[in-house]
Amino acid sequence: xxxxxxxxxxxxxxxxxxxxxxxxxxxxxxxxxxxxxxxxxxxxxxxxxxxxxxxxxxxxxxxxxxxxxxxxxxxxxxxxxxxxxxxxxxxxxxxxxxxxxxxxxxxxxxxxxxxxxxxxxxxxxxxxxxxxxxxxxxxxx
Length: 141
Hints:
Elements: E1 4-8, E2 21-23, E3 36-42, E4 54-60, E5 79-85, H1 87-101, H2 110-140
Antiparallel strand pairs: 1-2, 1-5, 3-4, 4-5
Helix pairs in contact: 1-2
């Protein structure tokens, strides 16, 4: 499965030389190079629910990417959060964050919540369909 990563940075990290979004292609092996200190797989709790899905990991900032003088500054973070999700999970997560999460989810009507769930279900289905197509193509080779 392809993965899209979104790195959430604090304002203090704005000068850090890490991309804010990167594509790992079909493998997350590059993540093994980082020292992970925490992981949380965010997903709906019921089998019949569709909503935001992502794996959130907290990693130690790699020293080789820190700008010169980083250690001399006070109260600088030692970790960053990396969110890993598939292409279709990401396609749902970005607008859902702006439309359903940020404005305050309590203000959403039941119909709007159902529409967002439909989009999440469609993204989930698209991920699985793409995996089946990829598996069929790999079986032919």
